[in-house]
Amino acid sequence: EDWSKVNPAIFGTIFQDSMDEGARHAFGAHFTSETDILRVINPTIVYPWREKIDKAKTLKELIAIRNEITEFKILDPACGSGNFLYVSYRELVKLEIRLLTKIKAEYSLKEFKKYFRDSSLISPHQFYGIDRDRFGVELAKVTLMLAKKLAIDEVLEAMEDKQIPLGLTEDQALPLDNLDDFIQAKDALLVSWPKVNAIIGNPPYQSKNKIQQELGLAYINKVRDRFPDIPGLADYCVYWFRKTHDELKEGQRAGLVGTNTIRQNYSRIGGLDYIVENDGTIIEAVSSQVWSGEAVVHVSIVNWKKGKQKGKKKLFLQKGDAKSSPWIMEELNQINSALSFEFDISKALKLKVNAKKGGCFQGQTHGHKGFLIKANEAKLIINQNKTYSDVLKPMLTADELIGELNSQPKRYVIDFSRRDLLTSQAYKKLFKIVEQTVLPDRETAAKKEKERNKEAKADNPNAKTNKHHANFLANWWLLSYAREDMKKAIKRLNRYIVCAQVTKRPIFEFIEADINPNAALIIFPFEDDYTFGILQSDTHWKWFLNRCSTLKGDYRYTSNTVFDSFPWPQDPTINQIKKVGASAKKLRELRTTLRKKHNISLRNLYRSLENPGKHPLKEAHKELNNAVIESYGVKKKEDLLEILFDLNLQLAKDEKDGRSIIGPGLHPKAKEKFISKDCVSVS
Q1: What is the pLDDT of residue 120?
Q2: What is the spatial distance between Cα 644 and Cα 569, in angstroms, rounded to a whole number?
């Protein structure tokens, strides 16, 4: 049998196929291509050793390096079937060959054979792995046993080509090593790790909500007790980043794959912020890329060192959602924890005037499809009984706003608002629909939650428990999150501003106040053109891009990260305010004209902006952007993000010192209301 033709990476496929979809979700397991494995192993393991070998000037140095390599220990704390360990094994062998080749080229064969007559090779006992999946662990052991055989073959072939007799034979792959003490089936977050020289891998990733659903409250409580400083909203993989950095000694390196949320918000605070604030230096990273495996996610890859590292650091980014999308790379003096090419604004501060209630909301979360009725059916119900219009409202989603030709809502929502059970029963037809569809599911969900809480308490009497579904059941006839504060804020207006919560493009629009916004929309309860102009501008969009979280490759607008810290113009002139408002109105009018003329949705209209060439909307956006920049007093050659960041810090200081600052909305200097009438309305 020709074992040299076997690629141990096949065991990753076997491992993946052995796990059903439920198990993959529960463990947050994702399987890594060799290309992505090398994005971790090269900066963390290969490049430092290669540099050391190439810089060595004496035979003594080279011999010492080879001895060091054969003692170099590597850990993958989420090893799965062992592909990261296998590729690491293979790359260490290639380094060994590089070293032997240099000795052969620079010294006599006699000297070479003197030192390498009884040459040893890289050993499987240099590699450690931990994983919760027992089958994966057994596969990892087989992978490393096979790696030893292939490594010997590779060295023999390389040395034979260079006419260097080592006295080695293929039989040295035997006997098979016992790796029970090196690859273990355990939960890496709850056990001690072996002492090694480098840590690599692709730890599991799950959002906060999915972790709890898949792994149970009792488990989550154990993990959080171990890592109390990691925010509860951080991604599951962040715990591995944190523990990995704590395990490293000065000068050691690590490389891990994570979902691209590790560079954002709570996940960044718990992981990469902690690393760079505790003597860590990011030496090479992928800010975001399309995952090469089956999972529909975007990932980040981070390689770092505990301690200082001189020289340029490489930051990569894949631009697009396809696996074939192009890449960009820049060499930077420092890679920040946001893995951003632009000026780092991750440390911008919350401004009280922005964060106070009333400036930015998320739309309604209905929580159950039983609350939704098709638009034509809803209109028929209202025609039959006008009083039903009190609680049956058109609900607009982001996809309808941006993707539909006329931006019309396709469904209405049964929203009893703050009405109690008896009052809601007066709307008999609608109440019956909710009673028959929503109530049974909420009873089931509450029962399951109660069982999970019981398990958590059995494991730890002091464990935290959830009342999420119990609360929904107590008010089962009401929407999960009706956003009463939001409804109150828009009720006093004729129209309000929205954008999609998750989006690729800067599209803001006015909506008439009688429409209920879905949770996929972010709501700004302002009706003036000036405020719209600021929000629609590149100035706000740049802040958004560099402060937001992401979903896959799209950007997610959140009030606490984007809106609450965004600094508004403090001292524009009356003419500048007018100019922003007029430019904003002009832009919307042009959008409407172009959509009607070309029978096109907002999404496709903005997609057309991405093509080269003249475009009337490009000019309208440029005019608005220039007006907004002028209102900030930013000069042409100044870095806009740096100016905004400095302004944010100054405004935060002013608030702390008791001075008032200008927040969201129409500037107090304005003597007009700047309110026009255009908006999306129900036809």
Answers
A1: 53
A2: 10
- 3-class DSSP assignment, residue 31: coil
The H helix count followed by the E strand count for the chain is 26, 20
Q: Provide the residue count of the chain.
A: 683
For residues 529-540, one letter each, b for 16 or more C-beta atoms within 10 angstroms of the residue's C-beta and e for the rest, the string is bbbbbbbbbbbb
Is 203 within 8 Å of 77 (Cβ atoms)? yes
Q: Which residues pair with 550 in a beta bridge?
A: 555
Q: Where on the phi/psi map is residue 410: left (φ > 0), alpha (ψ -120 to 50), or beta? A: alpha
Q: Structure tokens of 127?
A: 């590699």
Residue 172's contacts (CB-CB under 8 Å, 6 or more residues apart) are 121, 152
Note the pLDDT of residue 393.
97
Is residue 398 within 8 A of residue 520, CB to CB? The reply is: yes
Phi, psi of 394, deg, nearest 5: -65, 135
Q: Which residues make Cβ contacts (< 8 Å) with residue 81, sequence separation at least 6?
A: 11, 12, 14, 15, 136, 139, 140, 143
- What is the Cα–Cα distance from 625 to 542, expressed in whole angstroms? 11
CA 87/CA 140 separation, integer angstroms: 12
| Exposure on the CB side of residue 674, measured as CA atoms within 13 A | 27
φ, ψ at 240 (rounded to 5°): -70, -40
**Sheet with 508-512, edge to edge strand ranges:** 361-362, 521-524, 495-500, 508-512
Structure tokens at 652: 């935060």
Q: What is the 3-state composition of the chain as percent helix, strand, coil, each rounded to the nearest 5?
A: 50, 15, 35
Mean pLDDT by 10 residues, the chain (683 residues): 46 47 47 85 97 94 92 96 92 88 80 60 91 92 84 69 54 72 96 97 80 80 91 91 97 95 87 95 95 77 96 92 89 92 88 90 96 97 96 97 96 96 96 97 95 87 88 96 96 96 94 97 97 98 86 77 95 97 98 97 95 94 97 90 96 96 96 94 90
- Measure Cα distances from 372 to 9, 130, 235, 472 in Å: 48, 47, 31, 17
Q: pTM for the full model?
A: 0.76
Alpha helices in 315-462 (DSSP H): 352-355, 375-384, 398-403, 421-424, 428-459
Asked if residue 478 lies in contact with residue 471, where contact means CB atoms within 8 angstroms, the answer is no
Give Cα separations from 451 to 232, 330, 473 (angstroms). Answer: 22, 51, 15
Residue 342 sits at the vertex; the CA angle it makes with 340 and 346, to the nearest 5 degrees, is 60
DSSP character string of 623-655: HHHHHHHHHHT--TTS-HHHHHHHHHHHHHHHH
Q: Which residue type occupies 62?
A: L
Say how far apart CA 145 and CA 636 lie, in whole Å. Answer: 62
What is the spatial distance between Cα 421 and Cα 549, in angstroms, rounded to a whole number?
38
Distance between CA 381 and CA 220 in Å, rounded?
A: 46
Bond from prior residue into 612 cis (ω within 30 degrees of 0): no
User: What sign does the dihedral 630-635-636-639 (CA atoms) show?
Assistant: negative
Residue 253's closest CA among 94, 113, 99, 48?
Answer: 48
Please give the pLDDT value at position 363.
97
CA 616 to chain centre: 34
